[in-house]
Design brief:
Elements: H1 3-8, E1 10-15, E2 19-27, E3 33-42, E4 46-47, E5 50-51, H2 54-72, E6 78-83, E7 89-98, H3 106-117, E8 125-137, E9 140-143, E10 153-164, H4 165-177, E11 181-187, H5 188-196, H6 199-204, E12 206-211, E13 216-222, E14 225-232, H7 236-246, H8 251-261, E15 274-277, E16 286-289, H9 290-315, E17 325-328, H10 337-345, E18 349-351, E19 358-359, H11 361-364, H12 370-389, H13 398-412
Parallel strand pairs: 1-6, 3-19, 6-11, 12-17, 17-18
Antiparallel strand pairs: 1-2, 2-3, 4-5, 7-10, 8-9, 8-10, 12-13, 13-14, 15-16
């Protein structure tokens, strides 16, 4: 393969609790990305997003990569790696500097973000993202781009996302052992939201929720910036477990029944309807009312949505969700979850799929693939940015790259 074509390949690896997905993308003529390779294998070793079986995970990554490469006809040597799990912790921080020449320049922004970043992060944690929320010049608040603004004092409010060193190292180690170089780490919920949300939703304020198998990720946008992130240790796997116990059926049958007949809202189903349920230990199948299945699912769905509600309350951003809530991730496919969400949150709720990608859209246009598609989009934006801001041969520090990317997005929206 020619080096030039390999250089352009963007690959994303999402190691989820239920599946390992490897996507290969190629930038297209419209500054977007086409998905050209797809590999997905069941995930062997994760609990609430934290690895529990290294060898099997390496094998799953290898297989997903091979599948994707075969389909793409391109090799992928390096990947954007999704990071999730309950070890993720985030917090806000503020910094302030004097504006050097009374007019805000790039250099002032770098300094103010560095000042805001200067907080003690425990030695066992690693900073994954530094996301600027807003700037303040003297008494003027809520500024997304302070460049050129006059004043004497510049303040920055940033959101810092950290993860546990050990959990991150294990995921990185598995990826490297599968012969892949890690190009960068991306918070799974951030990636997922990039694939699904529109710029308008982010500007108006939105709570984005990726319901996975083992974790539920929340990311709140306000004024176009990430304002809050959290990972909850619950997911679609809980429904499956409850069904297996409640209807006394094997786990794989419970999973199948959930997808085919499950509903989070009892009043959406016909009370007379019956379903076939396989019994454990090779006993004969039984016929049960579908209502009984939904009676198992409904309280759990309510519990999960209430946990999300409590987390949103912690953020103090309930009143800023002008665009409501978007549910994605495989767990969002549960029938009735969106309707129950509207009832519990009392805001508009929609199910979100990855959009604005080309290529294998039939394969990836599902909430199951929001995070992996988002990794490709993140990788693509970094590729564009590399071209734009390092073509003078000068490499900017990561913090400026992050900030410049955000700024470029803001400018693209005409703000
Ligand atoms: N049609 C469906 N109805 C209900 N649930 C579904 C459906 N399809 C998939 N799911 C559930 O979605 C979950 C898998 O979602 P997803 O692939 O987003 O998780 P993951 O990324 O592997 O896990 P995590 O993000 O928690 O690490 C499983 O619990 C699965 O049962
Ligand atoms: Mg996931």
């Amino acid at each position: 393969m020619q080096k030039s074509s390999r250089d352009k390949v963007v690959a994303g690896l999402d190691i989820g609790s239920s599946k390992v997905v490897f996507l290969i993308g190629l930038p297209n003529a419209n500054d977007g990305i086409d998905v050209v390779g797809f590999g997905s294998v069941p995930s062997p070793g994760l609990r609430h997003g934290v690895l529990i079986n290294i060898e099997q995970t390496i094998e799953a990554i290898r297989r997903a990569k091979e599948e994707a490469e075969l389909m793409a006809g391109h090799k992928a040597d390096e990947v954007w790696l999704g990071i999730g799990g309950t070890h993720i912790k985030s917090f806000d921080s503020k910094g302030m500097v004097a504006i050097k020449n009374k007019e805000t320049q790039n250099d002032d922004i770098t300094r103010v973000i560095e000042a805001a970043k200067a907080v003690a992060v425990p030695a066992d944690r690693e900073v994954l993202h530094v996301l600027p929320r807003e700037f303040k010049v003297d008494d003027q608040e809520g500024i997304s781009d302070p460049i050129g603004m006059s004043g004497v004092r510049l303040e920055a409010l940033i959101h810092i996302v950290t993860g546990a060193n050990s959990a991150i190292q294990n995921i990185v180690k598995c990826t490297q052992k599968a012969n892949l170089k890690v190009k960068g780490l991306v918070l799974q919920s951030l990636a997922s939201s990039l694939a699904v949300l529109s710029e308008d939703e982010k500007k108006l304020g939105v709570a984005y929720v990726d319901v996975g198998a083992g974790t539920t990720d929340l990311i709140i946008y306000n004024n176009g910036s990430v304002a809050y992130t959290a990972v909850l240790p619950v997911g679609g796997g809980y429904f499956t477990h409850d069904i297996a116990v409640g209807l006394r059926t094997p786990q794989d049958c419970a999973e199948e029944i959930k997808k085919k007949h499950g509903s989070a809202l009892l009043n959406l189903i016909n009370e007379e309807e019956t379903i076939e349920v396989k019994s454990v230990g090779g006993r004969e199948s039984r016929t049960v009312l579908r209502k009984n299945l939904c009676e198992v699912i409904e309280p759990r769905a309510e519990e999960i949505l209430n946990l999300i509600k409590a987390e949103i309350a912690k953020s103090n951003l309930q009143s800023q969700l002008g665009s409501g809530m978007v549910l994605s991730g495989g767990g969002s496919l549960l029938d009735g979850l969106v309707e129950m969400g509207e009832f519990i949150f009392d805001i508009p709720v929609r199910r979100g799929l990855p959009t604005q990608v080309g290529g294998l859209t039939d394969v990836v246009r599902s909430p199951l693939y929001s995070a992996p598609v988002g990794l490709l989009k993140y990788g693509l934006s970094e590729l564009h940015l590399d071209k734009e801001i390092t073509n003078d041969g000068k490499k900017f520090p990561e913090i400026v790259v992050d900030w410049a990317k955000k700024l470029r997005d803001v400018i693209a929206q005409g703000l």
